[in-house]
């Protein structure tokens, strides 16, 4: 009874394996993508050494299904019609990832990315509700998030364990969930939701080496990427128990 089903599965597996692109194709250079033809040139690459810029294009979809390593950076900026950015097999990027100012972008898929050498910047992509970075465990420099106005739950970096510099996340967050083993040098949390710092960080106990600042019920000006926080922001030397205690103390003093 089981045999036909098993052999069908095997056949399906064999067919999909033979349909796959060649396992490795190394590409080198800086790729300044302006249109579909430029983009088509990098689709076969399994490795890229260089920079990828997708900048002010009219692309609606940027899908790199073969790319596994990028020794360089990728910047996807100001693409008015871009809806999908997918690098589902990428595991390592040595440089920066910047995805900014793409008003229609609703799918950001870096499903296999584990290590990012420099910074991750996600700013002003108002149509994405849940960027996909399920495996990302290490970011060498900064994590900067702002202007993802649809992403009300910050739960899309669940495996993150190390941020070498500052993690600065700003948005309409009702909850912020981070890996309990996360270590970051500095952390800034700014939320415009009506909830306060204590509530939005309820599921959260990361370690911050230097300073953690949290600013609740923030207005537009303070939600802008990297803008200065007012004196009212709560600053504390972080250790999980102390965080909850100091937030409550400041909230009490503010009454
Ligand atoms: C925390 O991160 C580790 C490694 O990156 C991962 O294996 C684990 O599942 C994460 N925990 C949660 C609750 O996601």
UniProtKB/TrEMBL annotation:
InterPro entries registered for this protein in UniProt: CWI-Assembly_Regulator, Rcpt_L-dom_sf
Subcellular location(s) of the protein: Secreted, Cell wall
Keywords: Cell wall, Glycoprotein, Secreted, Signal
Gene3D superfamilies: Receptor L-domain
Signal peptide region: 1-19
Protein name, UniProt field: Uncharacterized protein
Species annotation: Tieghemiomyces parasiticus
């Amino acid at each position: 009874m089981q045999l036909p089903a098993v052999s069908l599965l095997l056949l399906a597996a064999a067919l999909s394996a033979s349909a796959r692109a060649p396992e490795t194709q190394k590409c080198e250079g800086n790729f300044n993508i302006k249109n579909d033809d430029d983009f088509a040139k990098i689709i076969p690459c399994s490795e890229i050494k260089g920079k990828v810029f997708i900048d002010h294009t009219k692309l609606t979809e940027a899908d790199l299904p073969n790319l596994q390593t990028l020794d360089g950076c990728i910047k996807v900026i100001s693409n008015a019609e871009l809806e999908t950015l997918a690098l589902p097999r990428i595991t390592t990027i040595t440089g920066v990832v910047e995805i900014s100012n793409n008003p229609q972008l609703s799918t950001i898929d870096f499903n296999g990315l584990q290590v990012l050498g420099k910074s991750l910047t996600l700013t002003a992509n108002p149509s994405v509700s849940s960027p996909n970075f399920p495996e990302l465990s290490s970011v060498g420099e900064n994590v900067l998030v702002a202007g993802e106005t649809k992403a009300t739950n910050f739960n899309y970096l669940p495996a993150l364990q190390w941020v070498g510099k500052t993690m600065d996340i700003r948005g309409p967050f009702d909850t912020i969930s981070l890996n309990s083993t996360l270590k970051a040098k500095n952390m800034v949390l700014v939320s415009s939701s009506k909830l306060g710092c204590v509530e939005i960080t309820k599921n959260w106990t990361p370690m911050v080496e230097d300073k953690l600042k949290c600013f609740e019920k923030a207005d537009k000006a303070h939600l802008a990427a990297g803008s200065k926080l007012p004196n009212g922001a709560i600053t504390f030397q972080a250790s999980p128990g102390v965080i909850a205690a100091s937030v409550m103390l400041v909230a009490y003093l503010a009454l």
